[in-house]
Amino acid sequence: MVTFTRTRLAPSPTGALHLGHARTFLLTWWLARQSGAQIFMRMEDLDVGRAKPLSVRQAYEDLHWLGMDWDPFPGSPQPGGEVVQSQRLGLYREALEQLWGQQAIYPCTCTRADIAAAVAGAASAPHEGEAMPRYPGTCASRELTPLRGLSAQEAGIRIAASSGKPVCWRLRVAPGVIAFDDLIAGPQALDVAASTGDFPLTRFDGTPAYQLACVVDDHDMGIDLVLRGDDLLPSTPRQLALYHALRWTPPQFAHAPLVVGTDGKRLAKRHGESRIAQFREAGARPEQIVGWAAWRSGQRATSAALPARALVAAFDLARVPGGRVVLSDSDFRAIGRR
Ligand code: GLU
């Protein structure tokens, strides 16, 4: 039995929610409602280029339609008590100032191309197809003493002006393995300093990076259990490094294996129409999707239709299978249309 008091659903409004989202969010909701914990809604809309107001509304509608609800976050100005990241920029700035005061972060002007050039030819050069090379620490040795009396914001403006380049802020990562026990994925260990290196907490346009906003919000909201897709498993050791730097207690983590297409890639249009809204428009009932999610989460032997609240009492996180769910025709058949 997992003990916790607060969790959250944290969609990004960058597109419509699909079956994979439905399954992960249902797992979180079942666990919260079973434990008597609070569950909050947090809209992660900081990626301004991709955030769409329409998909915010649609995400709420889709989740309500599936039978999920959430508790109002105290002090939220939203009618449904949701937390909206773009309305909380001051909070992220405060955390950044705290880290700057502790000398835990430094300003960096390295672009992706600068980093690729710096590591090219070095023994640690990334292999083709590898996402991001380890940050070689180019800007870590910049002389910062003359800027110490300034805020991080002012210091960043000075460096941008003198270098003619935009600035992001990186966390200094201490060497060593960061380990944690994942409630679904089991024991995890990663040496962030050796694999990722110092990582950015802001983007070049000054907006907070996902890692910073997520940690600040989870802490501020009192979240003590995070359940999310396992595409974010590699982010968690970085987030733990940040919790440590900020001297905050991290939550427990549970990373649910993703639902992927037959090619093993994350769900996209080419895998068939898996958007919740599309099932709804085609006349499916929410119970059919919930029944499918319960079946594909090891909770039920068949995909028989089921309202979300019907599984609250019997839900068992230990039964969620460890492997990724490969979405095939049999899944679409199991959901049915009417
Ligand atoms: N907004 C993120 C996503 O949609 C989830 C972040 C999280 O749960 O920490 O992938």
Task: Give a written overview of the molecule.
With 338 residues, the protein is α/β, with parallel strands linked by helices. The protein has 2 domains: 6-87 and 257-335, Rossmann fold; 89-207, Glutamyl-tRNA Synthetase, domain 3 (Alpha-Beta Complex), CATH 3.90.800.10. 33% of the residues lie in helices and 14% in strands. The protein contains 11 helices and 12 strands. It has a 3-stranded parallel beta sheet. The chain has a 3-stranded antiparallel beta sheet with strand order 4-5-8. β2 (38-43), α2 (53-66) and β3 (83-84) form a beta-alpha-beta unit. α1 packs across α10 and α7 (210-220) packs across α8 (236-246). The two termini are 36 Å apart. The model has no long low-confidence stretch (mean pLDDT 93). Residues 10-12, 44, 214, 228, 232 line the site of glutamic acid.
Please give the CATH class of the largest domain.
Alpha Beta
Q: Order of strands in the sheet with the most strands?
A: 1-2-3
CATH topology of the largest domain: Rossmann fold
Beta-strand proportion: 5-15%
Order of helices and strands: EHEHEHEHHEEEHEHEHEEHHEH
Low-pLDDT parts are: none
Largest sheet: 3 strands, parallel
CATH superfamily of the largest domain: HUPs
**Global shape:** elongated
CATH architecture of the largest domain: 3-Layer(aba) Sandwich
Mean pLDDT: 93
What's the total number of strands? 12
| Span of the ends, CA to CA | 36 Å
**Ligands and ions found:** glutamic acid
- Rg over CA atoms: 21 Å
Number of domains: 2
What's the tally of helices? Answer: 11
The helix content, as a percent range, equals: 25-40%
Task: Look at the helices and sheets and give the structural class.
Answer: alpha/beta
